[in-house]
Amino acid sequence: MFSSPLTDGAELCPLEPWQAEEFADYVERNRAHLAPWLPWATTITDAEGAGRFLGAYAEAQREDRGRIYGIRREGALVGGALFRVFDVPSGVCELGVWISPEAQGSGLITTAAHRLIDWAFQVRGMSRVEWRAAPDNHRSHAVAQRLGMTREGTLRQVFPFNGVRQDLVVWGLLAEEWG
What we know:
- The protein is an alpha+beta fold.
- It has helices spanning 20-34, 40-43, 47-62, 108-123, 138-146, and strands at residues 4-7, 10-14, 67-73, 76-87, 92-99, 128-133, 150-161, 164-174.
- It holds the Pfam family Acetyltransf_3.
């Protein structure tokens, strides 16, 4: 997938290490909005750190165990999606997303997630897509619901974040439920 249209003027496309400066600028502009939910929003503070982050996903893609994409509107980076986990032997992957405040409510996240879930099931033959979110991340839970995912439970204190062990709500979708 080189790029995929989402709506008029918006597309989903790979984020690559050569885009590190742009990604670092995006994180800086949106840090306050992203930091409550995403650890990398506090650790990426410059182009070098962004390059390491994007480079790790480039390596994961090469090894077929993860991928990262940007969501662009009129050419500007406004969000993204990633397969944090992409375990082909088990047929399980975990999808995560983020978006800038000015792009919220436009359907870009739901459309991008739908596109990536469809790809995971239809093209790659995955059996299960997971979605994990903090219990108080209501916007993320709403997207999971719109995608037809089932809330499966809460993993207690599974995620160390900002010096505190956080709970994560797990949503799941099976290939036979997708259609």
